[in-house]
Amino acid sequence: MKKYFVLIVALFMITGCGQKDEAKNKTPKSRKAVTGQEYLAAGMQYLNQKDIPQAIRSFDMAIKTDPSDINSYLVLGQVYMRLKQYDRAADTFGAAVRVDPNNGEAFYMLSTNKMLSGRFESAEKDAQRSVELFMLNRDEEKFKRSVALLKTISEAKSSQTTQ
Known about the structure:
9 helices, Serine Threonine Protein Phosphatase 5, Tetratricopeptide repeat, 0% strand, mainly alpha
């Protein structure tokens, strides 16, 4: 009887008491069709847990699952930007712009990234495009934010040329 008890306890420990590893890690279940939004939500949970590599994998899966959802690109690009991986961020924001060429937020983030990496000429063009798009969409708050970014880039560019 004691042997059976030990065997059952060992089985529970090995199988995790019936809970799958995916559920423990908050990764969407692979048995059903997983949406990009589920991968995006899982990625946000990983970010909150400071598990950046797993968050990046989840955001990549969100993009692969739903390549037309601009939010996955924007979040992933911001993660790369915070990691100071400006080339990867530029690639991600560039993909966002290709997916939705009328998205002011994508141009704003691309411009911010380019400014941080010292590419002021290109950053200025993208900031100008974000200003135009926010003006067209009558988004006053984002319009003002883009104008401020454009001004900052112009000042940084002119101070760079005077040095």
